[in-house]
Amino acid sequence: MWSHCTLRRLYSLLSAKMLVWKPADKDEIEDMVKAFESVGNYALAHNKLEEDTAFPFIAEQDPKFKEAIKAIEADHKKFTQDWNAIQPQVQAIAKLTPGTGQDQIAALAAKVKEITEFVFKLFAEEEKICLPFMVNIPKDKQQKLGKTIEELSRKDENSKFFFCAMMDASKHDKEMAETFKKETPWFARTMFSAIFLKKEYGWFQKVVEI
């Protein structure tokens, strides 16, 4: 559930910043638009991995899962619709000049807050439904699924941002930190982050800083 922890943090940071955001220059506006794009890409990629890989795998182990997951599949569609619906507002923000458009920013901030709350609700429900099925799957099959998801995630063009965001989230969630440290190779946690963190994630940290 690393991605759930990570996306909760990303959306929380983005939402909190939007509520107080008053861009000082055009670069800050461009970076905020980029932040929306990066967080959205992560969420949509995560949902697709679940729909195309994780959910079919669990259903293969226990057919009852197909019925149990219908509500989550509907929520995934709602998330995609809601996220796509705010894209015109994001693009309108991109055209602002500093010192203008605070009403537009406030309207977008309200929508992001709603989506963030929905993300928390979605993940809580997802974990409530999925975990009882997962614990009954043999460990070797769970590991096989994990490896498949990891390989698919690495192929994503935004994988560096995703991994750096995970590393950041692991520093703020004790349970995630324990499993992340145990299951992620030392080299990846140190050298990879040192090389890519500033480039692939440092800009985002700066954008959402309050």
Characterization of the model:
The protein has a single domain (2-158), classed as Up-down Bundle (Four Helix Bundle (Hemerythrin (Met), subunit A)), CATH 1.20.120. It contains ten helices and no strands. It has helices spanning 2-20, 26-61, 65-68, 70-85, 87-94, 102-134, 139-155, 159-170, 174-183, 186-208. It is globular and about 55 Å long. The model has no long low-confidence stretch (mean pLDDT 89).
CATH top level is Mainly Alpha
Continuous helix count: 10
Q: In what range is the share of β-strand residues?
A: under 5%
Query: Any idea of the CATH topology?
Result: Four Helix Bundle (Hemerythrin (Met), subunit A)
Helix content percent band: over 70%
Number of domains: 1
Instruction: List unreliable stretches of 5+ residues.
Output: none
State the separation between the terminal residues, measured CA to CA: 27 Å
Q: What is the N-to-C order of secondary-structure elements (H for helix, E for strand)?
A: HHHHHHHHHH
Which value, in Å, is the CA radius of gyration?
18 Å
> From the coordinates shown, what is the CATH architecture?
Up-down Bundle
Structural class: mainly alpha
Globular, elongated, flat, extended or rod-shaped: what is the shape? globular
Q: What characterizes the major β-sheet?
A: none
Q: What is the total tally of β strands? A: 0
| Nearest-integer average pLDDT | 89
